[in-house]
Design goal:
One of its GO terms (biological process) is SCF-dependent proteasomal ubiquitin-dependent protein catabolic process. This is Auxin signaling F-box 2. It is built from 13 helices and 11 strands. Helix 2 runs antiparallel to helix 3 (30-39) and helix 6 runs parallel beside helix 7 (112-121). By secondary structure, the chain is α/β, with parallel strands linked by helices. Helix content is 36%, strand content 13%. It folds into 3 domains: 1-39, Monooxygenase (Up-down Bundle), CATH 1.20.1280.50; 49-189, Alpha-Beta Horseshoe (Leucine-rich repeat, LRR (right-handed beta-alpha superhelix)), CATH 3.80.10; 198-291. The chain is globular, with a radius of gyration of 22 Å.
Length: 291
């Protein structure tokens, strides 16, 4: 095999992004192993309990400290069902200048302070997914930490957080991110405010509404679904918290459902089964249904 300088190999490695391909390359030689270690943008571990942490730390020394030292170009980190502290989020925010994606799935141990570090310092952030995660001391002020010049957000999911939300900060963030495609808000965002948010993001492709009280002014239902209808690109809709609204506004939302590829509706009450079935008759392109 011809000998290539490490600089050239690094350029070649930069075009190989799939974890399985990377794993195969790392087995070729010690040099390639070291190159893979230094140039990785992401690490996938399907089951963190099936792998000894010492082995991963040896290859990628210390989950965050080691990555900060040896993988400065890391751009994406996905953690699932793990304890994540504020100092860890603070270190992430200050160690990776090109960091773009953070997913904390079912994680706990962090607070609004840790989230504020991410939103304030990760200036190229595109994806922030807090699915099923819990934040202690969640004042909702982390939304205000996004710089006013920040415009890169593509996906934002904070549906599981329980804290209050500064609605002005949320609307301002949505309005200045023209590439925002995926938005899932928590139940602290009132239905009265959702139409104002959606009108600032007509480019949305995915929308999620978390469970909330059923006693809401019917006029709010109509305004909400009129706003959703103006989001011409909607393909995925989660109405887990608003099925009762959907069923009461079928006339207004009938134009939405023929475009849907994914529909998420949980906890369908027995008395509303017929209405739910009627909704499905409009979903001609549906590929994924969660009930």
């Amino acid at each position: 095999m011809p000998h290539f300088p490490e600089e050239i190999l690094e350029q070649i490695f930069s075009y190989i992004t799939h974890c399985r391909d990377r794993n195969a390359l790392s087995l070729v030689s010690k040099t390639w192993y070291d190159l893979d270690r230094r140039t990785r943008h992401s690490v996938f571990i399907g089951n963190c309990y099936a792998l000894a942490p010492e082995r991963s730390i040896k290859r990628f020394p210390n989950w965050v400290v080691g990555l900060a030292r040896d993988c400065p170009d890391l751009r994406e980190l996905r953690l699932k069902r793990m304890l994540v502290s504020d100092p860890t989020l603070l270190l992430i925010s200050g160690s990776f200048p090109n960091f773009r994606s953070l997913a904390l799935i079912g994680c706990h141990g962090f607070s609004a302070d840790g989230l504020s570090a991410i939103t304030a310092k990760c200036r190229f952030l595109e994806h922030l997914d807090l699915q099923e995660s819990e934040a202690g001391n969640d004042s909702g002020q982390w939304l205000s930490s996004f710089p006013e010049s920040f415009t890169s957000l593509i996906s934002l999911n904070f549906g599981s957080l329980r804290g209050a939300v500064n609605l002005d900060d949320l609307m301002s963030l949505v309005a200045r991110c023209p590439n925002l495609k995926n938005l899932r808000v928590n139940k602290a965002v009132p239905l009265l405010t959702l139409p104002q948010i959606l009108l600032r993001a007509p480019q949305l492709v995915e929308l999620g509404i978390e469970p909330r009280a059923h006693h809401v002014d019917p006029g709010s239902h109509t305004r909400l679904y009129e706003a959703i209808r103006k989001c011409k690109s909607i393909q995925s809709l989660s109405l887990s918290g608003a099925l009762h609204i959907a069923l009461s506004c079928q006339f207004h939302i009938s134009a939405i459902f023929p475009k849907l590829i994914s529909l998420d509706i949980i906890s369908v009450m027995e008395g509303r089964i017929l209405g739910f079935i009627n909704l499905l008759t409009h979903c001609h392109k549906l590929q994924r249904l969660r009930v």
